[in-house]
Amino acid sequence: MAPAKTSKASSASKPSVKKHAATGVGAPSQLAQSSRKGKKAWRKNIDIQPVEQGLESLRSEERVIGSTLQKQTDNQLFVVDTKGDDKVRKSLPRYSKAELTSTKILSQRSAIPAVFSRPTKDSIASRSKVSRADKERLLRIAKRPRKGPFNAIMDHTEFGAGSALIDVSAAVKHSGSYDPWIAEEVEEVADGLEYTKKPKVKRPELSHPRDVIEVPAVLDPHQGSSYNPPAAAHDELIMEACRLERRRQEEADRLSEVRRKVADARALATNVTEGLPLGMTLDEIPTDGEPIVQHDAVVPKKPSTRKTKQQRAKALRLREEKRALAEKAARKKMLATITMVKSLRSTAEKVGQQQNQARLARQLALKMKLRKGLAGQRLGKYKVPENEIEVQIGEDLSENLRTLKPEGNLFRDRFRSMQQRALIEPRVPILPTKRAKLKEFEKHAWKRFE
Question: What Cα–Cα distance (Å) separates residue 122 from each residue in 114, 118, 129, 174, 177?
């Protein structure tokens, strides 16, 4: 019986080991402290669960608030409200079916910004610290196989022989690094370094004609263009169309007259007789059959005589006297104008003011003219066409909509309206050029011709 008692006592004397459940956060920990003999056992059998719980609470605070509560000041944590706010209910977010529940949870519980799918400079820089060019250079030095176009293995010994690596363009190298949504950063240049870097050319901010034009896209039709118009409005529209057509005819007649004068001038230039003015002809002298012998007129040459020393000295003295008289007259005129400085200054100021007023008047007149559109004005190489007046004479007018005849072209009207409002440039239709006819040739006799 004694040994049994000693065994019970020995079993009761062993220390009880308390096991904790493994934590789901952090590194796994072995909490069964069977032995603490040695430094290795101390490092292995250690309980870090309280430390992990504390760190996780700090992380949750950072996710919700943006920083830990220990780093917040009293003004950020506490507010003494003595009055209250009646607009709190209005400022609270309302329920929205369009907003996702996950978005609401993140907006209420997280101070960490969302992850953007668009590339940024920081993400691209941290993606690979070694550029592609440096990587290829290191592979070339180490004589390792390098892949070129179509994943072909390039031979480093035949660099430049046609099978070596073909460098990609700059657009491919910098692909994915440009974000059009990022605002342009204004680079500040330090004092004294203005001329070391090439300045960027700033685009001038000029007003566009379309900002001044007040012509509507669709003009209201004239009252006389109706299928059953009033007599006065119909006559007014017919007279306006007549004036427009008469002006076009006068312009065509003027151009034809200019072309005729140019053709006559070219014809006269080909029939010019030497020694006679342009346009004059010489009548032929009738002869009795005897040929007229023309003798070249001999012009006597004037013998050139060399000036003597006295003549050259006299000519030089005369030139010096003329120069001195001209300088004296210029000096006298300048001295006379010194007393008129004030009057000249006031005159110059008046002229400058008048020129400035004339310039402003021209700009105002041009702006008032642009308000009515660009119809009839030359813009660039071509002239902006005017609107065609679609009118029918009294015989062609229909009494009802059933017998109405369509006039004009809707597509042409829209295109002309866009040109007059400076939305598109004025152009003229390009007619197809006549191609030369194909000539048919028969081949040699020993060849087949089909």
Answer: 15, 12, 11, 14, 10
SS3 category, 146: strand
Q: In this predicted model, what pLDDT tens digit does every residue of 314-334 receive, in sequence order?
A: 999 999 999 999 999 999 988
- Beta carbons of 419 and 384 less than 8 angstroms apart: yes
CA distance 136 to 146: 7
Angle 309-338/341-371 helices, nearest 10 degrees?
Answer: 80
Encoded tokens for 136? 């290829």
Alpha-carbon span 149 to 267, nearest angstrom? 68
- pLDDT tens-place string over residues 250-263: 999 999 999 999 99
Shortest CA distance to 202 belongs to which of 184, 220, 218, 216?
Answer: 184
User: Residue 448: which residues within 8 A CB-CB, separation 6 or more?
Assistant: none
Nearest Cα to Cα of residue 111 among 67, 57, 55, 54: 67
Predicted structure pTM score:
0.41
Going by C-alpha positions, the residue among 144, 274, 211 that lies closest to residue 153 is 144
Q: Which residue has the higher pLDDT, 325 or 15?
A: 325
- Classify residue 139 as exposed, middle or buried by CB count within 10 Å of its CB (0-12, 13-18, 19+): middle
Q: Which of 10-14, 126-130, 173-177 has the highest mean pLDDT?
A: 173-177
